[in-house]
């Protein structure tokens, strides 16, 4: 399978530059000093809609428009961040959007989609309902992760990390369906051939790890984690191909390790990040991933969409 | 009384540059669009020790060292952010520090002082105990706000705001003892003579407002606010002089307005800020301070030292 190329990433940068937040890469000396690392965080929680998803969605929409003209509308299925990004993109380009969300989706995320003008359809059959609506209305179904344009959009994060300092020795990326790490790895691997690129997913939402071990199968049990942004039910074909070719390892962290890491990360970075963004620090903190002293380490903080109720669990 | 001059601020920039975080000025389109404002936040929650206090403390210590040589140690009194900044500065320059804190101080802030190597003395008589210890040990007592070097250190925030974009039309600054707004006003007023500079304090912790109305008297009742970083029992002589000369207005927000504004600000900025940092947005949100459409508005987010227990109140 064709992987996202350097030209694809450059094209994505051209398309979405100025339309997305050029998020800062911030030093995290508080934790870095403790572990003897040169630690940095890429603050994608500061991105429009509060997560990296906006990059991939905008690139996919603009690439589609270049190739085939403006779609009649956008359809998507997602429990959260992708839903918000699609609604945001629809609003930005005056396109109608419909988003299929599970009935148990966090109310604040449903509200956010509506605030961006998106129509919300609550359904247990996310993919089926979404495909039916897209076909009926002639809308473009914009996939959450398993799409080369989406991956190329997320890859702009890797380019920015490289532009903001020397090549990192270790990059840690949260993994759900694998779109973020596929993109980041495509960008970083090209410039830093010896960098270790490691994905981290919850042990109870391990679609990518399971697929890597079984040659592509989806886990038998549905994903369930406080890191709800990583609860993809299956990995993608495109994302698996990128991960197999470009990523050194994908590790799985225990649920209680995420919880402990989350507060420490909030307190150390002073960034409001969602639990999904804390899995990478959980992997460092529990020794699941180790880094040699003084290595330049970058944690990609994927998003910041957290509810007051979730924050209250920190008490 | 002599106010902090442009040269004083330039000297402070020279002294502390590279020793403090050059904090970003971040666009806050989420709230800005809602109010029709060009809204920006200065993220001092990302500063070392999690608040702007580190700037003033480092400048005061380095200015003292230039004038009189290295002190034997540092003494300070504070319930929180100033305590942490002094302990941090002591650790950075290998000076012993002792900090007098009230017995009801937040445990996480006491722990943070100790983590930076500071000695903590819990006492109800903050000033008396601190003066006695400083005299006995020959330590320098580093004041929390009423000091020209401290004010000049905080003024570097104003210089950075000016360096990062066109002059603002309105700058909103949280007010406790008044050190932060004195510094910011000294820097901004010089470059933006027509900018409105407005301070905001809790109605139940209004030392500066009370002093402005009474010619310098301290409030009869002790300060008490969820914005605990602003609970100064009295205003300073230096800070009052700066505020009278340079600040357009100091307004007081109700306690419940701070609470409501706090969550919205966290959610909109994705920055972990303490309640004290939300008083400015509370003043905007409740219409206590108004801004003409399209005005460039800067909110100074003073700090991010918040406990899990405080966050749990958001539920």
What would you note in describing this structure?
Chains A, B: This is Tryptophan synthase beta chain-like PALP domain-containing protein. Chains A, B: InterPro entries: Ser/Thr_Dehydratase (IPR050147), TrpB-like_PALP (IPR001926), TrpB-like_PALP_sf (IPR036052). Chains A, B: Pfam families: PALP (PF00291). Chains A, B: Keywords: Lyase, Pyridoxal phosphate. Chains A, B: Residues 20-303 form the Tryptophan synthase beta chain-like PALP domain. By secondary structure, chain A is of the alpha/beta class. Chain A has two domains: 6-50 and 147-312, 3-Layer(aba) Sandwich (Rossmann fold), CATH 3.40.50; 53-141, Rossmann fold (3-Layer(aba) Sandwich), CATH 3.40.50.1100. Helix content of chain A is 45%, strand content 15%. Chain A is built from 13 helices and ten strands. Chain A has helices at 6-16, 29-35, 53-68, 81-92, 107-115, 126-137, 148-163, 179-191, 207-214, 237-246, 255-269, 279-285, 308-312, and strands at residues 25-27, 38-43, 74-77, 97-101, 119-122, 140-141, 170-174, 196-202, 249-253, 296-301. Chain A has a six-stranded mixed beta sheet, sandwiched between helices. A four-stranded parallel beta sheet of chain A has the order 5-4-3-6, sandwiched between helices. In chain A, α11 packs across α12. The longest helix of chain A has 16 residues, at 53-68. Chain A starts with 5 loop residues before the first helix and ends with a helix. The mean pLDDT of chain A is 95. The interface between A and B is medium-sized, with 25 and 25 residues.
């Amino acid at each position: 399978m064709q992987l996202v190329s350097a030209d694809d990433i450059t094209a994505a940068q051209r398309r979405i530059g100025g339309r997305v937040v050029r998020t800062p890469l911030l030093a995290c000396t508080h934790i870095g000093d403790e572990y003897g690392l040169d630690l940095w965080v890429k603050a994608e929680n500061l991105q429009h809609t509060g997560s990296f998803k906006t990059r991939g969605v905008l690139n996919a929409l603009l690439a589609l428009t270049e190739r085939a003209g403006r779609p009649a509308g956008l359809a998507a299925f997602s429990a959260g961040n992708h839903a918000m990004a699609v609604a945001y993109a629809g609003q930005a380009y005056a396109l109608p959007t419909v988003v299929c969300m599970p009935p148990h989706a966090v109310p604040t995320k449903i509200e956010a989609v509506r605030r961006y003008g998106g129509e919300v359809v609550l359904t247990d059959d996310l993919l089926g309902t979404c495909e039916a609506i897209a076909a009926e209305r002639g809308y473009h179904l914009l996939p959450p992760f398993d799409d080369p344009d989406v991956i190329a959009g997320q890859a702009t994060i890797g380019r920015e990390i490289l532009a903001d300092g020397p090549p990192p020795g270790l990059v840690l990326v949260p993994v759900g369906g694998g779109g973020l790490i596929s993109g980041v790895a495509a960008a970083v691997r090209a410039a830093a051939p010896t960098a270790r690129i490691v994905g981290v997913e919850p042990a109870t939402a391990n679609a990518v790890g399971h697929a890597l071990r079984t040659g592509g199968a989806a886990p038998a049990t549905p994903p369930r984690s406080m890191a709800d942004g990583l609860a993809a039910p299956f990995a993608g074909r495109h994302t698996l191909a990128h991960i197999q070719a470009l990523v050194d390892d994908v590790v799985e962290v225990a649920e209680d390790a995420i919880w402990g890491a989350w507060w420490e990360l909030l307190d150390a970075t002073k960034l409001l990040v969602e639990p999904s963004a804390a899995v990478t620090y959980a992997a460092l903190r529990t020794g699941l991933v180790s880094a040699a002293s003084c290595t330049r380490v970058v944690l990609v903080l994927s998003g910041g969409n957290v509810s007051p109720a979730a924050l209250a669990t920190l008490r």
